[in-house]
Amino acid sequence: MLYFCLNDRVGRRRVELNEHNYIQDVLILLVALLAFVPIFQRLKIGSALAYLTAGIVIGPSVLGLFSGGEESRNLAELGVVFLLFAVGLEVSNERLRLFGMRAFLLAGAQVLVTTAILAGAAIMLGLSPAAAVVVGGALTFSSSAVVFQILSERGQMTGQFARSTIAILLVQDLMVAPMIVIAAALGNGGESVAIPLGMAALKFGFVLVAFILFERTILRSLLRLAAETGAPEVFTGATLLLVLGIGWVTEEAGLSMALGAFLAGKMVADTEYRHQVAADIQPFRGLLLGLFFMTVGMTLDLRFAALNAPTLGALVVGLMAIKTAILFVLAMAFGAPRERALALAALLSQGSEFAFVLLALAFDSRLLDGEARQLLTVAVGVSMALTPLGAVLVSRFAPKGRSGVSLLGNLDREGGEVRNHVVIAGFGQVGMAVARYLAGQRVPVLILDLSARRVRASRIRNLPVYYGNAGRTEVLRAAHLERAHALVVSVPEAAIAEQITALARRTFPGLKIFVRAPDEDWIGRMRTAGANAVVLEGLTTALELAERVMLVYAPEGEASG
């Protein structure tokens, strides 16, 4: 009896210690996040490198504060899953058509030529052909997170230079999912890789057919059902079900969860719910991806890096020089001016966050040993840190443009060129009347509404109405408020109107905001939240809102003149 009591007590104590360690790990991660990310963002280095540095500092190489564990690794893998889902959301069919054939031919040539040359270099350095293919593919990719941040900060997200840059990054992102399948197949292939590659291609074909059928028969109905409940948590739950459910299916099929997440994002990309889905996954994606970068940082051995500094330096210089030279020559061959070709090549010469994923997969599949993985992972991280040097050329040669253009699906496709427009949040009776009045005055409008039925009915009539929650920063950015003339908040719920107003004012300080209010008690609150003008509910609410917008509205030529 005493034995069982003692055994039970020891078991409970062990569980308590495990829970304590797990909670302690979470606290350490959160403190590291708060300590490093703001500093790196202020230095305009990028949050990805902040997470990597935080992982190095709290990991075994420096302070040894983080005990790690299976739970942390599982959460980090989910970060990759959400990253691939977000990539899928960016590659809608309509959006791909925006860039033109020449941009995609350049992008395809860059991926194929760079992969072949880097794989050949890897074989010359002693890697097996299978490992060389995975390494060459991993190092071909450039960092979308780092490049987009640089372009956005410098106001260069529009124009031919931006189109070429984004097209190359999109094609690279499209190649990530096949590379994950190839890496897994090569790792399980033994001496002969033809059979596992063929089996992987066959499985992928079956999965792709099943997903196409799912997209055409069930997907829109599922999202519509979730949207029509009017409960944001239900729509978020449907989004998570898509990401994790489809990822689970592909994993059970012997492929990878990340591949399923990418396909799920690709399916959603061509629906009217795309921008709201992107907004819903952003918090999950950001935190889990940050954890992934931290776990990568924890695997880096600084002592090993110091002992192999000459080799690392040669790898970094060689990688960036080869990628720059290849893209410069290809861009010139496709008709880009010399200065633009050089700026494009310098900006995309670094490694990518996806390289960490593929190198880890190659290590787990025993294609790479620990030393090779360490060298390549550190080299990719250093190349990402050196990207701002390439951005100097971008600042000098790339054409200036307006900053902050969102890359979110349908709003970019149908409203990507709109500017000096009025965004209307809420398309009830008041919102409809305001939109009708402004349209009659030839003022461009863009409308956000959370009623799926109303959005669907409006889009059938070719009205610029989009499903999205105006209380989310990502949705407001997708509506291009950074270059809008005004925001009209016409939602009937005063508390929600106050929330939208406060968020818009914080995010876009110079924006003109007009709000409806139910009674005089709300006037002060709306003005405190940031409204420029508040109109009380009544028979002429819509007319007053529209007239106040027109009082300060000027056509684009006059506004810029």
Structure report:
This protein is mostly helical. Helix content is 71%, strand content 5%. It has helices at residues 2-42, 47-58, 70-89, 93-96, 101-124, 129-140, 144-153, 159-187, 194-228, 232-252, 257-269, 274-299, 302-307, 309-333, 338-347, 353-364, 370-385, 387-397, 409-415, 429-440, 452-460, 473-478, 494-507, 521-529, 541-552, 556-560; strands spanning 422-425, 445-449, 465-467, 486-489, 512-517, 533-536. Helix 9 (194-228) packs across helix 11 (257-269). The longest helix has 41 residues, at 2-42. The chain is globular, with a radius of gyration of 26 Å. The N and C termini lie far apart (90 Å). The model is unreliable at 1-20, 399-409 and 557-561 (pLDDT under 50).
How are the strands ordered across the major sheet?
A: 3-2-1-4-5-6
Mean residue pLDDT? 77
Return the structural class: mainly alpha
CATH topology grouping of the largest domain: Na+/H+ antiporter like fold
Choose one word for the global shape. Answer: globular
Give the class-level CATH name of the largest domain.
Answer: Mainly Alpha
Spatial extent as radius of gyration: 26 Å
- Structurally, the number of domains stands at 2
Q: Which range best describes the helical content: under 10%, 10-25%, 25-40%, 40-55%, 55-70% or over 70%?
A: over 70%
CATH hierarchy: architecture of the largest domain: Up-down Bundle
Which percent range describes the beta-strand content? under 5%
Mind summarizing the main beta sheet? 6 strands, parallel
Which spans have pLDDT < 50 for at least 5 consecutive residues?
1-20, 399-409, 557-561
What's the number of extended β-strand segments?
Answer: 6
Please report the distance between the alpha carbons of the first and last residues.
90 Å
Number of helices: 26
